[in-house]
Amino acid sequence: MPEDQDRVDHRRAGDLAADEERASEQRRAQIAENLAAVREDIAAAARKAHRDPGEISLIAVTKTYPASDVRVLAGLGVLDVGENRDQEAAPKARATTGLGLRWHFIGQLQTNKALSVAEYASFVHSVDRVRLVSALSRGAVRYDKELTCLVQVDLGNAEPMDDNAARGGAFPDQVPELADAIAAAPGLKLGGLMAVAPLGAEPGPAFERLHTLAMRLRSAHPSATMISAGMSGDLGEAVAAGATHVRIGSAILGIRR
Predict the structure, then answer these.
(1) Which domains does the chain have, with CATH numbers?
(2) Helix axis angle, 2-48 relative to 67-75, nearest 10°?
């Protein structure tokens, strides 16, 4: 009977909706548990380094994860979100408009993508050449905004953000020129320095070198106080070396698909 089939279809739809709701609740609980553990790890690392945990900002790296996870994070109080590919970040930013998020672009950035990134990002951590400074400046001016930029430093054999990303970063002796260019560019603000730990080496000494470079930068640009360093596997070493921002993905959202 058609009416019987309608009841069956309605019941199946209701069961499906209930299953989806349970899955959503389970995902939120999983993220909340992981986030609490990461926050405690950051606090413990700060205490060990005799630092105030409040000095360290968490950037949740959401690459490869859906906008629904970003919304969960926002509901849990995480408003700093990191992405490394414009083609993924741009639609995700549009899908989460109105949540008060601060988008951090942390991957290698092609000059022809700078205009797109400037539209939604509040921070770009991966500035490694003067040509990119000019492109980001044009984007910031176009969108009538201030875009905070960090100089990415190559600390030697830097590990890429993912398997497909090019290794990037300015050499240490190039930092002053790039920093001056950012500071002088319309629409841009010099935030500080970013680095990725070297591949196959202890991260601690590398992050100490980054801290030394950051102190030199602050002597010329006192407001450039950001040190973006540390990911899921080396946040303790980064915090010990003075990181102000850590970029954590898998420890919060799970192993990347």
Answers:
(1) 2-253 (3.20.20.10)
(2) 60
- The distance between the two most distant Cα atoms of the chain, rounded to a whole number of Å, is 81
Neighbour count for residue 200 (Cβ, 10 Å)? 7
Contact 230, 240 (CB under 8 A): no
Instruction: Output the pTM of the full model.
Output: 0.89
- Identify the sign of the CA torsion 46, 160, 116, 61: negative
Each residue's pLDDT expressed in tens, for the chain with a length of 257 residues: 555 555 545 555 444 466 567 879 999 999 999 999 999 999 999 999 999 999 999 999 999 999 999 999 999 999 999 999 999 999 999 999 999 999 999 999 999 999 999 999 999 999 999 999 999 999 999 999 999 999 999 998 544 444 434 457 999 999 999 999 999 999 999 999 999 998 888 999 999 999 999 999 999 999 999 999 999 999 999 999 999 999 999 999 997 65
